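Record type: monomer structure entry
Structure origin: computed from sequence
Chain ID: A
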Amino acid sequence: MTDISKWFKSGQPWIWLNAAAVSTSLIMVFGLVVLIATRGLGFFWPADVMKADYQITSESSVFLIGEIVETEDIAIQRVRDGGYEIDSNDEFIQRHLIKTGNRDIYGSDFQLVFKPLLTNVQFPEEIIAIERREWGNFYGYLKSVKKKGEIIAEGEEAKNVLPDLIDRVSDIFAELRVIQQQDIGAINYSMEKLRLKKRRLELDNDQDPGKKAKIASQRETLDQKYSVLQKKMTDLQEQIQRDSIVVEAMNGEQLEVSLQNIVHAYYPNSMSVLGKTGFYFAKIWEFVSDEPREANTEGGIFPAIFGTVMMVMLMAVLVTPFGVVAAVYLREYAKQGPIVRVIRIAVNNLAGVPSIVYGVFGLGFFVYFLGGNIDALFFPEAAPAPVFGTPGILWSSLTLALLTLPVVIVATEEGLSRIPSSIREGSLALGATKAETLWRTILPMASPAMMTGLILAVARAAGEVAPLMLVGVVKLAPSLPLDGNFPFLHMERKFMHLGFHIYDVGFQSPNVEAARPLVYATSLLLIVVIVLLNLLAITIRNRLRERYKALES
């Protein structure tokens, strides 16, 4: 008994308890990341497509084509209570979630089936899987390829010529998208600027004919450029619409699909492991580099990645100087007393305020008050359409900067408090002023602590969603906040965000089963983005710490 008491008094049990708690936390975090990665990354693998007969009743069956997405065990008695006739002595049977695709034909592209009712299960090599820009995937058989309505290939020949045609159409489609989003987008942006400039002349009652003539001349030049691009687009659209394929669904219905609606067409059952691996990595790259389709349930999420990173960087640029200045004042200049203690308590309490409250404040103060007054003073010609008086990336960054400000203040103050007073006294003794001491000695030595505060701020801000829903984030943004149009960085624009994308896909999607894997994939990508941003900040902090280690010692 005495030995146990000594052991407890030595503190060893608490050390082991702490180690066990940390180990458990790490295992849980690692397990969560593995679960998300498995569910998310597995979505991009080209699974084999099954062909089978599904016995609905003892007298009727249907033909079924699709890929097995999920499998679960279900009590057989529950199945029999549902009216299914299953001859089995097992207590549980397997139920498959089959992605049958062909939503334009059947109305739904997923179906639940019971494994014992599947017969004649095969995986024919001639089954084609087509990923479309609309209506999701198609599973069936390729019958023929058409050009301008005339059949040019059938059977095996159609299978051979299809990849080259899809590549050709994809190149034309990419060229069309560049013209629509960049070239015509730039013209529309310039036209809007001219409209606002003309409106400004009207508001100022400026009747200068030279200015009006200049605006008219610039508009005429833009109209000519638009006409050229419009003709080029018409020619490209005629080329992209001429080719199509005829495919047959599992119920025997034949469907003509234009090649402009096809993203990928492949034969999963005949692909080798190497071929599937190449397709897998191509799909992952498409996911991180392309734009979303089909209400965010297909395609990529590049705009969300771009918006998240850009917002976090703007937030970091805004929060760092304010947080450092506040911490320097509280630690170096303010007279320590009751008022300063109350301020510190208030700063610490601000860190615990729910984030949605910051969103409401940002909407009321930044968007309506500050943005509305900016519009009234500097953009009256845009009325009644708001410029800065509407949610945008600037107000989102400011709102998150306000949310993370307490973290930066506390971390910077801690860094300043660890700097020995002898360094301050030595600098002052050598004739430096207090400002010079602060700028050249104290702040550089405290920079690792500032970076620690910034790391914590980035980690919190990158995952916030609630306040952003009020001050700038949207489901689909028509254009990125950064483009080739002057002034290049458009702080007033709305943007997409990975966190909101997860919420939208997971809870607002009209196709829940199709959206579920994207929730895991986007969550994994958000974790990766946060880790990369933190690693960048940690690298900078470590370099600063090594640089000023000698001074601290």
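Annotation 1: The mean pLDDT is 87.
Annotation 2: The CA atoms of residues 8 and 256 lie 78 Å apart.
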